[in-house]
Specification:
The complex is a heterodimer of chains A (about 450) and B (about 180). Chain A is mainly alpha-helical. Chain A is built from 18 helices and eleven strands. In chain A, helix 8 crosses helix 13, helix 14 crosses helix 16 and helix 16 packs across helix 17. Chain B is α/β, with parallel strands linked by helices. Chain B has a five-stranded mixed sheet with strand order 2-1-5-3-4, covered by helices on one side. Chain B has a two-stranded antiparallel sheet with strand order 6-7. The longest helix of chain B is centred in the last third of the chain and has 17 residues. Chain B starts with 6 loop residues before the first strand and ends with a strand. The chains are: A mainly alpha (about 450), B alpha/beta (about 180). Chains A and B meet through helix 14 of A and loops of B. The structure holds FE2/S2 (inorganic) cluster (2 copies).
């Protein structure tokens, strides 16, 4: 009995010591060098700011740090997490934002996840990815943000339940999920591949959406980029095999990222925002590098004509009764815009017969588009796609399952046996926000 | 990509009159069917892309509020067995052969809501659907403004008669008993 008591006391003491240690931050390793303790001069800031604009675009800062309809860089965008709602913060140079931050403090926030005063950032801010950014790029980003207009907008409080509102607990999370060292260029790979890795992993943080997470919401490194579910939709598998399954080749992927449109369809839902705020502003060379890296190639690859869609997979068989019913729904409701053969109409509606959305593991994004519609979208070069109406009132779950199974088998080459119950589940997850999003 | 024309029988009810069965090529749009087979040209071709709503008709179902459908992007065969009302079917034909405009049509004429009239069939359809909807589910007086906006919002008028259309529908809603709660 005494032994047990002693052991319990020991455990409690050990636990308290661990908590103390965590809270003190002594277990956390910074990757920020001493060199950034020296402030940047006004001239340096002026000179660095334009490059910082490009870094900000590639790192997609704006999309999260600007609420839709809100002041630029003033934060306020809500993020639903399993632990509650987090709001992106003001990062304009006002007192509410990063106005008082030193160069070193900015570096620590971006790469260590620790804001001035030792306040831990929530990992909704992808500092685990930005940790890999070069000191030069972080300086440029600092120079750019600190020269924006000051936005005197107060930060919105987060709605996190205990214990997730205790920021010090994040030092435990960091211990498990924040890499101690950052990736260095791999000398066995080409410059193109290495640049692509930097753009995709450190700046672009593709994995934040495309890599599945564990229960602690940490990225599962062993399953990197194999696809994950975000707000009920699939962020698809973007490993070389996953990209090929969607019909992409390096050239068409680079084009898709740069324009939001390719034979594989248009960027929709969250990916539209990524293209809109980030990738369409990126240098072509970086897009090509990113595509090469995602396809794990050292050279761009032979398929250089992005306009030629990858061959459609052969249709998988489907019961004639299902395809008959589906074809009637398609002719009635879809063919008017997407064409009798799924060919689409330029500048109006995307082609379906080469559409990546019909080849992904999950049908959710296509089904959600059919039910809730899509807003009109503008793309670079004056390109646009017209609004798609929602058909929730016109298709019941059985008709929707037939239509989806038929399109996925006929054009997607997927074996598809979705049930009306599967459709009901996707339907139930749709909120008015989805239809209104643009 | 050419596919051989394949006829498929179509029967439906248009403005209360049974039509068909008649052979219609698969893939024919409802608008084309109305214009070319039935001679009903009121559902206008504006954009042909589902944007302007000049081409809408009402789909009626017993015990339900009618719905608006765009005929330019909807296949004729989707209407198989359904009841459709086009703009030609809103006015009532009297025993002496004269026509009495519907309350919505009268309101538009009195408000001088339209100029060229190209968009008017769509607005007549949308406003009539709204009136039916409010009959089934009245809204508070202070919500009328927004409800009318929402009902007409997706209709485009190149002569920009929006304010007069809106005023006409709002006044009609407020003046018709049973559409507004106290
Ligand atoms: S013609 Fe049908 S919506 Fe414009
Ligand atoms: S009255 Fe001319 S388009 Fe509306």
């Amino acid at each position: 009995m005494r032994k047990i008591l002693l052991a319990a006391a020991g455990l409690a003491l050990g636990g308290a010591a661990l908590i103390g240690l965590l809270a003190s931050g002594a277990l956390e390793r910074s990757v920020v060098s001493r060199a950034v303790e020296t402030p940047l001069g006004a001239d340096q800031i002026q000179a660095l700011a334009p490059r910082g604009a490009a870094v900000a675009a590639a790192a997609d800062c704006y999309a999260c740090h600007t609420a839709r309809g809100g002041a630029p860089w003033a934060g306020g965008m809500p993020f639903e997490t399993p632990f509650g709602t987090i709001h992106a913060t003001n990062i304009s140079p006002s007192p509410e934002g990063i106005g008082g931050w030193s160069r070193a403090e900015f570096h620590r926030a971006l790469r260590d996840g620790i804001a001035p005063g030792g306040r831990h950032l929530y990992p909704a801010m992808p500092y685990t990815a930005y940790r890999g950014m070069t000191e030069g790029d972080v300086d440029a980003l600092y120079a750019y943000l600190i020269t924006r207009e000051k936005m005197p907008v107060a930060n919105r409080p987060n709605g996190l339940a205990f214990p997730f509102d205790q920021r010090w607990t994040l030092s435990a999370w960091n211990l498990l999920h924040l890499p101690a060292a950052v990736a260095v260029p791999d000398p066995t790979r080409s410059d193109l591949w290495n640049r692509g890795r930097y753009v995709a992993e450190a700046l672009g943080h593709c994995g934040e959406c495309h890599t599945p997470r564990n229960l602690m919401q940490g990225l599962r490194g062993e399953a990197a980029l194999t696809g994950a579910v975000i707000e009920g939709l699939e962020a698809p598998d973007i490993t070389p095999a996953g990209l090929a399954r969607m019909g992409f080749a390096p050239a068409s992927l680079a084009r898709f990222m740069g324009t939001g449109l390719s034979a594989q369809g248009g960027a929709t839902h969250q990916m539209f925002e990524v293209v809109h705020y980030s990738t369409r502003h990126m240098a072509r060379a970086d897009l090509a590098a990113m595509a090469a890296y995602l396809f794990d190639r050292d050279a761009p690859g032979p398929e250089m004509d992005p306009a030629v869609p990858a061959a459609a997979p052969a249709p998988t068989p489907l019961a004639a009764a299902v395809s008959g019913r589906a074809r009637a729904s398609y002719d009635g409701l879809c063919a008017g815009c997407h064409g009798a053969q799924g060919e689409g109409i330029p500048h109006v509606s995307v082609a379906l017969r080469t559409n990546a959305g019909l080849r992904t593991a999950s049908p959710a994004s296509v089904v959600r588009a059919v039910l809730a519609g899509l807003p009109a979208q503008t793309f670079p070069g004056g390109e646009r796609m017209e609004a798609m109406p929602g058909f929730a009132a016109d298709l019941d779950d059985a008709a929707l399952a037939d239509l989806t199974n038929w399109m996925r088998t006929e054009w997607g080459g997927q074996a598809s046996t979705l049930s009306p119950q599967d459709m009901a589940a996707i339907r139930a997850a749709i909120t008015p926000r989805h239809a209104a999003r643009d | 990509m050419t596919t051989p024309i394949q006829d498929q029988a179509l029967s439906l009810t248009v403005n209360g009159v049974p039509v068909g069965p008649m052979p219609v090529p698969r893939g024919t749009s409802m608008q084309e069917f109305l214009h070319e087979w039935l001679g009903l040209t009121g559902a206008r071709m504006g954009c042909g892309q589902g944007i302007c709503n000049a081409c809408t008709v009402m789909v009626e179902e017993d015990g339900k509020v009618p719905r608006e459908m765009r005929t330019c992007i909807t296949g004729a065969h989707w209407f198989e067995g359904r009841r459709v009302r086009t703009v030609e079917g809103h006015a009532r034909e009297e025993a002496d052969g004269s026509l009495t405009l519907s309350p919505v049509q009268t309101a538009f004429v009195e408000a001088f809501a339209f100029q060229c009239g190209y968009c008017t069939p769509g607005f007549v359809t949308a406003a009539t659907v709204l009136i039916q909807r409010l009959k089934a589910a009245p809204v508070p007086r202070d919500a009328v403004e927004a409800v009318v906006t929402e009902a007409l919002d997706h209709h485009i008028c190149r002569c920009t008669g929006y304010v007069r259309y809106h005023t006409a529908v709002r006044d009609l809603v407020l003046a018709t008993p049973g559409l507004v709660t106290a």
